[in-house]
Write a structure and sequence with these properties.
48% of the residues lie in helices and 15% in strands. The protein is built from 18 helices and 14 strands. The strands form three sheets. A five-stranded parallel β-sheet has the order 2-1-3-4-5, sandwiched between helices. The chain has a five-stranded antiparallel β-sheet with strand order 8-7-6-9-10. Helix 1 links the parallel strand 1 and strand 2 (37-43).
Length: 569
């Protein structure tokens, strides 16, 4: 039996959440016993509340060192010891690669009378520190929400620990049993996806075309198959390549139920990201056209735009196919110029009865299988065929590149007549990982471009589509290293008007709210300069700009002003 030690750290205010988490772990153990796994929960209530030869906190820290996973929960305060437990886990992780660490911040109603100013300051300071460390945290609204989110994470990593019960090995070695499992289920994941995508992008990409021309028998050579996968991942435009990377990685794992679950989920997400990217590029360009010369939309076109900007929940695959169809019709009928002109070829594929729309429909229907957990291996193979169909139709994106432009500096040396603008940017490619500072580059130019923006381009990066505020680099806006690319999800139109985003690496949520820290008026330069000298103010300014841009786009394309709750008194 493999024991996995889970240490949970939190302040006393979250006692109820910890108790329910304990019940969740008990139910998981009932399910995992046949897989030879036992989850052992360590939390501070289990330690003897007595004087020891060392600080009691030292005993907690020693338990962390022996743990496989550490979960930190925060609500209205951090707590001296909870913070220490996180930093202890983080330092051990850097040194030995474990324990895995998850941090969750509870985002729920707070009684105003219970708020302590110092506690809230410590909470915000810790979040900022996480950004500097490159550690991503997740928010949860209730204990049920926490259990769903952590349950998904647990399912993703448990296959690493899975062992069969001893009874299954009677009379045979582990090697024999492993071979039997392999013989029973052949690992054919990505076998169809890889050749179809390689051929598709070879029509637009020289590297892929050259590889196919030089290696006609690549499918029979394991090393060349790996090379083919790397070409696909690196040559599809940034965010799509990163999604394909996850599909390739999951496909290479040993077979398990967890593998099937994650493969199906990522087939869905990959299709959504591809559709979103084209839609957001179209909306961004349409916004520019509308500012230059106002266009009158049909009632159905206007309705779909209003739905996009006012959605109070995340759109599904079919919602994006409907949006894409109307956007392409607007560009086609009005003969509007669009950088990604190849997307016009998608319009006939969005009609009823097409293979592309059928593939999107079937990928959308996976939600029911995932919800009921009734999926089988054949569902994974069907999903692979369908996502291949979608990506083949988007293969023209292999001509394009995406970059995240961060800070822009101006450099002029003494006696130089002219200076140069230094564009600090991150090239977004499928093989790059979030938070990797090594991907950062500097480009010297004689004139500036818009900073803190994610752009897509083909040949000349000055001829681009600015995807802000629909695709953003969360880390760039927070002025921390690495990139954290997030796709707009929905706006809480009927609630607090927060903008919700999805981080492409793990599909976790981020949101942007309008700050209560407005930038001072430009008329007083001293006041403005003093305000800008503080990093926290510049961060607020960056996120406020994203927020205001979204509502500017909404007003320009739908005529709807920023919605707010009226004061009834």
């Amino acid at each position: 039996m493999k024991t996995i030690r889970i240490f949970i750290a939190s302040s006393s205010e979250l006692k109820e959440d910890r108790e329910k988490f304990k019940l969740f772990i008990g139910l998981e153990n009932d399910r995992l016993v046949n897989k030879g796994i036992y989850l052992k929960l360590e939390q501070w209530e289990y330690f003897k509340d007595s004087i020891s030869s060392t600080r009691l906190q030292d005993e907690y820290n020693e338990a962390i060192r022996k743990s496989d996973m550490v979960i930190c929960l925060f609500y209205t305060k951090v707590g001296k010891y909870t913070a220490e437990e996180f930093y202890t886990a983080y330092e051990i992780f850097k040194a030995q690669g474990k324990p895995r660490i998850w941090t969750y911040f509870k985002n729920a109603d707070i009684k105003m009378a219970s708020i302590v100013k110092e506690d809230m300051i410590s909470l915000f300071a810790l979040k900022e520190k996480f950004g500097e460390l490159g550690h991503f945290y997740t928010e949860y609204t209730s204990i049920d929400d926490l259990l769903v989110k952590y349950g998904r994470q647990l399912n993703m990593i448990l296959p690493e620990y899975e062992t069969s019960s001893d009874a299954e090995f009677v009379g045979k070695s582990k090697e024999d049993h492993s071979k039997q499992q392999t013989d029973e289920i052949e690992n054919t994941f990505n076998d169809e996806l890889t050749p179809r995508l390689l051929v598709a992008i070879s029509n637009f990409n020289k590297k892929a075309a050259g590889f196919l021309e030089a290696n006609s028998d690549w499918k029979e050579n394991e090393a060349l198959v790996k090379t083919a996968k790397r070409i696909i991942i690196s040559e599809y435009v940034g965010v799509i390549g990163s999604q394909i990377r996850k599909l390739m990685s999951i496909g290479a794992e040993d077979f398990s139920e967890s593998k099937m679950l994650r493969y199906l989920e990522n087939c869905q997400i990959t299709a959504i990201r591809g559709l979103q990217l084209v839609c957001y590029a179209l909306i961004s360009t349409l916004w520019d056209h509308q500012l230059a010369k106002k266009i009158e939309f049909s009632s159905s076109q206007n309705d779909v735009l209003i739905k996009f900007f006012r959605n109070a929940a995340e759109e599904d695959i079919l919602g994006f196919t409907e949006l894409l169809k109307h956007l392409l019709e607007i560009f086609s009928i009005r003969k509007l110029e669009f950088l990604i002109s190849e997307s016009s070829e998608l319009l006939p594929k969005l009609q009823e009865g097409s293979g592309f729309l059928s593939a999107c429909t079937q990928l959308n229907d996976l939600s029911q299988l995932l919800k009921s957990a009734t999926f089988q291996l054949n569902d994974c193979l069907a999903a692979e065929r369908n996502v291949a169909t979608v990506l083949e139709s988007l293969s023209f994106l292999a001509q394009y590149r995406m970059i995240s432009i961060n800070e822009i500096d101006y450099n002029q040396q003494r006696n130089d007549e002219e200076g140069l603008y230094l564009h600090n940017y991150t090239l977004l490619i499928g093989e790059s990982l979030a938070n990797d500072d090594s991907q950062s580059n500097v480009r010297r130019e004689s004139s500036p471009v818009i900073s803190h923006a994610v752009i897509i381009f083909k040949d000349n990066y000055r001829k681009n589509i600015n995807l802000d505020p629909f695709i953003i680099d969360f880390n760039g806006l927070k002025l921390v290293g690495g990139s954290k690319i997030c796709f707009y999800s929905h706006a809480d139109t009927y609630d607090d008007l927060n903008l919700n985003y999805r981080f492409i690496e793990d599909n976790s949520k981020e949101f942007i709210r309008k700050s209560t820290n407005p930038k001072p008026n430009d008329s007083s330069l001293n006041v403005l300069n003093s305000w800008l000298s503080k990093k926290t103010n510049r961060i607020d300014m960056n996120f406020d700009k994203v927020y205001s841009l979204f509502f500017e786009a909404k007003k320009t394309l739908t005529g709807i002003e920023e919605e707010s709750i009226e004061d009834m008194f």
